[in-house]
Design a protein that fits this description.
Elements (H helix, E strand, L loop, with lengths): L12 E8 L3 E4 L11 H11 L4 E5 H16 L6 H9 L5 E4 L12 E4 L3 H11 L4 E3 L3 H9 L5 E7 L7 E4 L7 E11 L3 E10 L8
Parallel strand pairs: 1-6, 1-7, 3-4, 3-6, 4-5
Antiparallel strand pairs: 2-8, 7-10, 9-10
Helix pairs in contact: 2-3
Protein name: Bifunctional deaminase-reductase domain protein
InterPro entries: DHFR-like_dom_sf, RibDG_C, Riboflavin_Biosynth_HTPR
GO molecular function, one term: 5-amino-6-(5-phosphoribosylamino)uracil reductase activity
Length: about 210
């Protein structure tokens, strides 16, 4: 017999970001993953893909990622084999897209459009216990969900580059103050650092002791 709604465990929400050492999500002219993906990291990505996350993303990220996925599926021009496989694989993954400008039905397979308040929609998603949730890019959405206290895990993969001249999309701008309790760390390919935390949003600086 399946669990009743009252018996289901709440769904967990992971914020999952790749980041340069100086806090950027990407850099102009650099390849994907800053050209530093290696076999250990790629194998870990494959393992994560098997965990059946539902991805949450905003309209801008939807447009960008759908376009890249379609291009990779067509000819993979401009993408490495690993990038192409990762992008085309996203078509099969369930995705929830939060937007007031897009119109249903969305063209990217397995994408559901949500036009209402994203924070309230994710709060309801977590209550229903429908499975693990993860953000996909979407820095503005990520900030809103973190500020609302809805994020259970905050995970970074830090790439050993500083992109002071070419960096785009500063990740932490507009964030609240957040305390982070580390729950996991590992190194991939001798150079990429995974850091996973439980976040606690603060209303001000922590009291001195």
């Amino acid at each position: 017999m399946g669990a009743t709604p009252a018996e289901r465990s709440p769904a967990t929400l992971m914020v999952d970001l790749i980041i340069s050492l100086d806090g950027y999500a990407s850099a102009e002219g650099w390849p994907g993953w800053w050209g530093l993906e290696g076999p250990e990291y790629l194998a870990w990505l494959d393992q994560e893909a098997a965990k059946n996350y539902t991805f949450l993303l905003g309209a801008n990220t939807y447009r960008l990622m759908y376009g890249m996925s379609a291009q990779a599926a067509a000819d993979r021009t401009g993408f490495s084999a690993e990038e192409g496989a990762s992008l085309t694989g996203l078509a099969a993954v369930p995705k929830m897209v939060f937007s007031s400008t897009l119109r249903a039905p969305l063209d990217w397979p397995n994408s559901t459009l949500v036009t209402g308040d994203a924070v309230e929609a994710v709060r309801d998603l977590k209550r229903t216990g429908t499975g693990p949730l993860s953000t996909l890019g979407s820095l503005r959405l990520t900030r809103s969900l973190l500020a609302a206290g809805l994020v259970d895990r905050f995970r970074l993969v830090v790439f050993p580059v500083i992109t002071g001249a070419t960096g785009r999309e500063r990740i932490y701008d507009g964030y609240p103050d957040v305390m982070l309790e580390m729950v996991e760390s590992k190194t991939f390919d001798g150079r990429l650092q995974l850091l996973e935390y439980v976040p606690t949003v603060l209303t001000g600086p922590p009291s001195s002791r």
